[in-house]
Each structure stands twice: as structure tokens, then as C-alpha cells.
Amino acid sequence: MTDRRTFLKSAGLFTAALPLLGRATAAEPASRPAPPETFGPERGLLFDAADVPRIRANLEAPRFRDLRAILFPADMAVPMRFLRDEIRMENLIQDFAHARQLLESAAFAYALTHDAAQLALAKLALQRVCEYARWDYFLEGGQHTIGLQRASEATIACVLALDWLGDTLTSAERATVEHNVVTKGAPACYLSLYGMKYPDRVRGWTQDPREHMPFKMDMRRWPLILNATNLKVIPTCGLGYAAILLHGRHAEAEKWLNLARQSARAFSTMYGLDGAYDEGAGYWGYTTTHLILFAEALYRRTGVDDRRLINYPGTVRYALCMAMPTLGAPPPVADPKKPYDATPHGGLDPARDVVNFSDSGLALDVSIAPWVGHTDADPVSNYVAQNIGGMRQLHAAIWYRPDAPVQVPGPELNDVHLSNDLVISRTGWAAEDCVVAFRSGGPANHEHADRNSVIFKAYGERLFHDPARAAYVTSSPRWLLRLTEAHTAVLINGKGHQYHDGSEGTNSSWASARVTDFHTGPGWMRVTSDATDAYQLVNPGVIGVERTLVYLKPDVLLVLDRVRLKDTPATVQMRYQVFNDDSHGSVTASAGGFAITRPHATLAATVHSAGAVTVRADKLALPAEEGVQPFAEVGSAGALAHEILTVATAQKAGGVHGGLAVSREGTGWHVRGSHNGRAVAVLITAAGEGPPDVVVERSA
To answer: Is 98 exposed, middle or buried (0-12, 13-18, 19+ CB in 10 A)?
Structure first.
């Protein structure tokens, strides 16, 4: 691999007259032999002309209602006016991104319909994208643009537009686009990947002062930090697309392809062997889509098959496990025009709700599922494509096959302990089904300070909640939503576990927890997670922080918290957050418990302890314009050892909660009674260190 200086000097080499090679020569053997098939420049990057009728039929299906509205807007004058009169040519964060999105969607719509209005929109968007002086807002050495996101996405969009607009572009227009890819796209993507591969050779990454960003980040460690995040995959795909477009016609194209493939392979280790992904379901979709876009185009154009770098059927099952649809209408978003005050942007979509630990998103998108179903002949992925979450990415319409064989997820997916130490237990995937999700595990990009936090969804409602739309930057009040105190988790002396200060972005902390026990049986699940290490980083006197869940399906949840300190007594607080983004959530407290009310379901909890406890209802310290975030807090008086059991039942709105009696028997807790006609008898014995013994005597 040549050094960076040589690359920069050669980036302008471009000989448009040389033809594309019919088949690229791989720098190394393909991942596996390709089946007999035609490859080469006559193939579309993602689809061929023969696929168009199928894709158009897909877009007519109800499953693609949202995507259809994006591709075929009711008023084409609005995007044309933006591109012609309103676009700010110095603004990349918002306006350049919007122009790129319009380019991609309009070019795709034209390829399907040959609509003259879509062609005009696509050409104007392509012109505007190319008119930008630079394609990203980060620099290396204060001079050279690095392409972490905008340049990568623009390169992909331009290459796809060349493919989809075809002969409607003149040779001069094509040459202009290719020149921009060579000078503004590929070099920026290459520098970002080169810097992540060789961080010791980077001459400093910084924000480009010309962008006037609303936040400041310390980027000195970003070449190391981003190497394990989604922002490695986007330039990987961008550089790969530039290489595929210009292979044989640009002196650097072979090198671009080599680095892109190396980067994809290196990043594939960020997925667990089971397909689990640490950055959460929202970033999972964005990241995995770009891995697939690169692998699919590479395969179609060259026959080189890198489509098995990760466990794709497993990663679709990971997304399936994250699905948590709820009832109700999407709640309003206070100010959606403030893009960095909250992430992800937009509002929660109940029908596509998701287990949202960290910045996991507000609506599950499974646009890759039909590709996996077809490529891996996986009927469970086909089921996901037809029934779970949503599909708003245009690529989903390309890959979807409504007649593909489907398989309903089996009971083995009802209780999962993922490789990243997330535990999810459920009764099914309908909005009325019940889900318990438990956040153990280690640090991750885009994480919150949420070790041992819990989500409990029952009868269509989030009853124990994890906050949505936390701030991306510390200057926003919504940064609070990233901290332990805003989660259904434990505080010691009113403080959460270790978390970073946000100066480097939403990068990983040092906080870790680990699942020490996980078992299931007929109608029940139990799990214990030890988060001692995470809390010791704040309070060295902590010698034990352990949470055990006993879930009696569908609607009884026992939460046992044990906290131990070495020699200085401390108070302990257990917070239970209430979903109130729609202003329909409330909580009340009593001496022995608390109650949570939502429109479709309620929760009743009693609290039991070996020591003195108090229960109160409160709300997070956020400005009024950010909404009311209520919670119940169970407080345990100062001591060296704490053991608190919370017994919660969920019920449909208007229903009556059963009676569960709790008694202390030696070192154990006995829970007996009935709820919704099901008998409950559980013994939890917590003696000494390690996970408690749990005996489910009866839950039926």
C-alpha cells in the first residue's frame, strides 16, 4: 500500500477514455467460489432491467407505503424549490445530506418509471451535489477532507445515479460526476479508512471550521475510536463503490478496492458470531445495509463474493429479538429541527418500536432482511421482511420477494442471551405481547450509562422505560437522558456508574457488566447480571452490585437488587422510569410500592427489603420544553449491605391486579399468590456472593 502523500498526489489521475474491465482481478481469492453467473459492467449495481416490474409491484404493496411516499412525493415542486432556491452551498450537515437523499431517491424512481419530473429532479440534485466545494466536514492535518459520512454517502449516491440514469446523462455530465467522485469522494473515504488502519500515521483529525458546526468534539482519538463503529463501514462502502465504478480507468482504483475489502473484513469482527451488534438496532440497520450494498455490487460487477463476512441470518435474528412493537399513535416531537439536541432524530413509532438500549433508534428498520432471505435461502429472514418492523430504505424494494418461503420464529427465540450479554425474554412479537429486556454487557459506541437497566413492555405499553432521543452533545439538557439516573437502574448515594464526559462524542465508556446466570423453563426466565466493576469506577468502596430478574410469563416480573460496600455505608436508589413522551404516562407512590398507568396497561409493584426503604414519585430535572419524564424511586437507607425485592404485575387497562404475598424466610424471599388466573410460587435465596438460587415452584 502506498503512503498517504503518494495517494494524495495521484488522486487527480483520471483517464475517462479507458473502458471498465469486464471482470475485476481480485487482490486475493474470493471468499467463496461464485456460482455460474454473468458478471461485468452490463450488470446493474443492484438490479437489472428485468427486475424492474417486480420492484414496481413491490412498491405497490402496503408494506412499502412509507417508502412509496418518499420516492413519489405528492408535490415535486417542494424538492425542486429546495435544490434550486433554498439550498445552502456551504452547509453539509443538513442541506448537502438532503440533496444527496433527493438524488438517490429521484434517480431510483426514474429508473423504475422513466418519469420526466423525476429525471429533472435527479439531474438537478446531481448538479447541486457536484457543485459543493467539498463533500465532508472533517479534516486531516487541517487540510485534507476525510469522508466519515457525507462524502461516503455522496459517493455511493453518485455511483448509483450513474447506473440508474444511464443514457439520459451526456458524456460530459458523466465525466463531471466521475471527476467529483475521484477528487471529492474517493480521496476522503480513503483517508478515513487509511487513518483507522494506521492511526499512528494520522496528522490529526479535526472539525472543518468552514462548516460552523453547533458542537465541538475532541477528535484526537477518533482514528482509534471510529475503527470499531458504524463510521468505518460507510467510507468502506463509499470507497468500494468508487473502485467498482472506475476499475481499469483510474490508477488508484485497484488500491481503493483492496482497502475497502480489507476494511469490510476487519469490521466484520464487530458482529458477534450470533450476529449481535453492539451499537444497537438503529445503527445495526445503517451499518449492515452498507456492508451489503458493497458486497452485492462487488459480486454483481466482478463475481468476487464477500457476502458471507458475517452471520447474516444470525444478525437478522438479532434485529428480530430487538423488535418490540407497542400500541398508540406516534408521540409528537418537540423540535425536530434541532438535529444534535437529540439522537436519533424524529419520534418513536409504536408499530415499529424497538428495544432501545443506548442510541438504538426509535423504529426498527429491517430493509436488509429480504436480501438475507434470498441470498442465504433463510425463511426466517423472509418472515422478518414481511412482518417485523418497517422497510424505508429503497434497497428493500429491490430485494423484497413477496412469494419467498417464510418460517415463523420458533420458541428458541423467545428467550435469548446474546453474545453481547443482552438478555431478552418475550411471549411473542405482536404489540399486545410482553417483553422483558435486560442490559448487561460491556461498553459500546453510542451507549448510555445503563448497565443492569430493564425494559418491561406488556399489553402494548412500555411500563419500565428506557429514555428515547438522548442528546448527542453535552450542551443539551437531554444529555441527562444518557446517564444512569434516567434509566430503570440502580444509583449508589444518588450516583450512577462510570460514564464519559462527552468531549469525544458518544464513544464507549469503561463500564462493564456481565451475565452470571441465565436459565429458562416452562413459562419463566431468570437472569443475573453483575455490574460491580462499572460502579467501582465511581465508588471504590463498592464490592458488589448485582441485579436478578425472574420473569413469570406473561406479566409478572421480580427484580432483586443486591448492593454491598466494603467499609463505608451508602444509600441505594432503584429507579423505574415511566414512558411519557405522549403525556399519557403517570406514576404514584405509596409506603410499600408504586403504580404506573398507561392508556392500554397498568403496572402495580410492591417493594420489600431486609432494611428500611422509602418509595417516592418524581420526574427528571429537564426543562419544561423537553417534556416530563416521571419515575418511581425506591430508596434504601444507608448501610453496608442492601437487598431489595420489587414484585411487579402488569395488567390490561381496566383489569384488576392479583394478589402476591411476599415473605422473608431465612435468607430467601418467597413470593406466593396468583395474577390473571395463574398461580405463582417462587423462592429466591440470596446467600453470600454469586447469583441467588431461584426455584420456580409454580407459574401456570
So the answer is: middle
Does 331 score more than 90 pLDDT?
A: no
Residue 269 has what DSSP assignment?
A: G
Return the domain boundaries, the chain.
414-656
Query: Is pTM, for the whole model, over 0.90?
Result: yes
On the question of pLDDT at 261 being above 70, the answer is yes
CA 683, chain centre distance (Å):
37
What's the Cα-to-Cα distance from 533 to each of 3, 338, 350, 514, 530, rounded to whole Å?
42, 36, 35, 9, 8
Stretch 580-589: mean pLDDT, rounded?
96
DSSP 630: E
Q: Are 503 and 576 in contact (CB under 8 A)?
A: no
* DSSP class per residue in 338-358: -TTTSBS-S---GGG-B--SS
Q: Which CATH architecture group holds 414-656?
A: Distorted Sandwich (2.70)
Q: Give all strands of the β-sheet with 138-140 in edge-to-edge order.
A: 144-146, 138-140, 205-207
Instruction: For residue range 679-699, list pLDDT tens digits in order.
Output: 999 999 998 888 999 999 876
Q: Is the pLDDT of residue 449 over 90?
A: yes
DSSP states of 52-82: HHHHHHHHTSGGGHHHHHHHS-S-THHHHHI
- Listed in sequence order, the DSSP H helices in 166-229 are 171-180, 186-197, 222-225
